[in-house]
Amino acid sequence: MTEAHQSGITGIYPKEIAADNYYYVRSCIRQNFFPGSETAFLKIMRNVLGKNIYDDAVHTTCTGIGYHSDIVPFETIQTVVARQFALMTEKGFENLAVSCVTSFGIYCEIVETWKNFPEELDKARVNLKKATGREFEIPRNIAHASDIIYKFRREIAKEAKYSLVNCLTGEPLNLVEHIGCHYAKMFPEMGVGGAEFTSVLSSMIEIWGGAVVDYPERRHCCGFGFRQYLIQANRGYSISNSRKKFESMEPYHPDAVICNCPGCTMFMDRWQYVIAEMENKTYGQGGRGIPVLTYEELAGLVLGYDPWDLGLQMHQVNSEPFLDKLGIRYIPSQKYSGKDGKIMAGPVIPACIK
Amino acid sequence: MDLFKRLNEDVRFREGLKACMNCGICTAICPAAEFYDYDPRVLVTTVESMDNEEIESLLKSDAIWYCGQCMSCKTRCPRGNVPGMIVSVLRKVSQELGYFTESRMGRQQYAIAKTVGDNILSYGYCVHPSKINPGLHPEQGPVWEWIFKNREDIYTRLGANFDKPGAGALRKISREALDELKAIFDETGGTELLKKIEEFSLKKAHESGFEPNGTTEDDYFREVYKKNDHSGIK
Prior knowledge:
Number of strands of chain A: 8
Mean pLDDT of chain A: 95
Strand content of chain B: under 5%
Order of helices and strands of chain A: HEHHEHHEHHEHHEHHEHHEHEHHH
Number of helices of chain B: 15
Number of helices of chain A: 17
Oligomer: heterodimer
Low-confidence stretches of chain A: 1-11
Low-confidence stretches of chain B: none
Helix content of chain B: 55-70%
Distance between the termini of chain B: 25 Å
Radius of gyration of chain B: 20 Å
Strand order of the largest sheet of chain A: 2-1-3-4
Structural class of chain B: mainly alpha
Order of helices and strands of chain B: HHHHHHHHHHHHHHH
Shape of chain A: globular
Largest sheet of chain B: none
Largest sheet of chain A: 4 strands, parallel
Number of strands of chain B: 0
Helix content of chain A: 40-55%
Shape of chain B: globular
Strand content of chain A: 5-15%
């Protein structure tokens, strides 16, 4: 039974995803750690799928990390979100495309609050008007950016230059998909496939030729924990969660981990390095880590984009073993090039993880 | 003060607390319960008791600061309770009343306000590359040190509009947009909360013999950011 079929059996989460005309809201974490993913997403939307998507200079953080670490009040974040909606409204859009899973959860939570507590919506309207003079409409459709890639996964497959298949054996590559808690755990109906049988990434993986790894801790949190990572003294919580997932997936020999959420991508990547430093333990083959990619990076590779244009050099765990399995040709010396092709010295290579 | 009543003023509290039947599924699914001495079921029971003294103790304890806000509890509770949302409201009230400085985990809010809070209002981002100092983030590994040192080159190469006006990843958020963000914080209690966190924290710091200067370099920041042992704090 395929993943897509399995989620189809539940049949209770048919998510509506707008087909065109999106207002794009960026992710703090993705911009900092994987900016090439947002660049690739917009390129795919415009150049491959021919979609109209607006990238606005004047939107800001949704303040979601501050909200979930309790330094931003609910009333404040509601009004910041109202401002993002006002900017969308002013530009003539009704469909929100969200780059960040934390933000996506925030937008869903606030719109749901406004449905259940209309007085909160009234308050947000008054607060926004007083603070900025702006007015807003609630989006007709809120999609995480991965929802849109999921919706058009077949169109992307038609343009594919590579399949998620081991070029030497012809076997599908084994991919772990990690969804990110705030995509569907809070509002299962807002995620493709719901909270347990989430199929937003697994459907992409399968249609692009790969196999999805099912493992016991598949739906476990990556361990961000907001304040549990932001404070150095608490990071044991964060790494312990990721470690639990790696220990659980290790026996299935995944070729890569594909993440939905920018924060999860960063933690699944960086904590492998830290576990290697702390315990001399690596989860990939031959002393390597398991490459961790965003879904935009995966889509970009399938479409034949250069791995270094996608930004795979910003990952701590080297992705070359995955690229080699896919049969992707790349120029190693270009990995650490800067703007205008300038070749730079690369990062220090840690001894603990190849 | 009737603390239950105070908590109940927040819509998230009313949304998150129905009638708990003590099944414990929230605790079973909770990552914080796995790695900390934490039990969301007990926390909900305490709140539900409406016992003012118990709730005050809770607001002054580490217990409300362990949750990682993954919200797995929301998916699972058969009664529609959301301990993660209840925790958010407990934390809000703990900060408003200054109770957070009575617990080790609560005191950490000073460091979050000084980092994430400043990032939001100064840059328009929760996280900004110029503020992710590799010294405070060794877990980011050598790759981040490399990115941090060469950030303009690397971000530009990847199509970002780093620190420049206009659209794009890591664009410089305009003064006008930052002013709107600040006005929202002023209008909605965001500025007031940051001020309270700072005032209560500095009071606690001075009482304990620290000499904080309100920056990420000060002795109290380092204490609450880095240390699991706060035996030096009164």
